[in-house]
Amino acid sequence: MGEKNFSFKIGDFKCMAVCDGIYTYTKPAPLLFPTAPGEELDQKLREFGIDSDRWLEWKSPYTCLFVDTGKYKILVDTGGGKEDQSSRETGQLLDNLRADGISPGDIDFVILTHAHPDHICGNTDEKGEIAFPRARYVISKEEWEFWNSFRAGKELPETFKEGLIRCARQKLPPIENQLNLVEGEEEIVEGIRTILTPGHTPGHLVVSFCSKGEELIAVSDLLIHPIHVEKPQWYTAVDYNPEKNITSRIRILEKAEKENALLIGFHFPFPGLGRVKKEEGKWKWEPQAK
Ligand SMILES: [Zn+2]
Question: How many A from CA of 288 to the centre of ligand 1?
Answer without folding.
Answer: 23
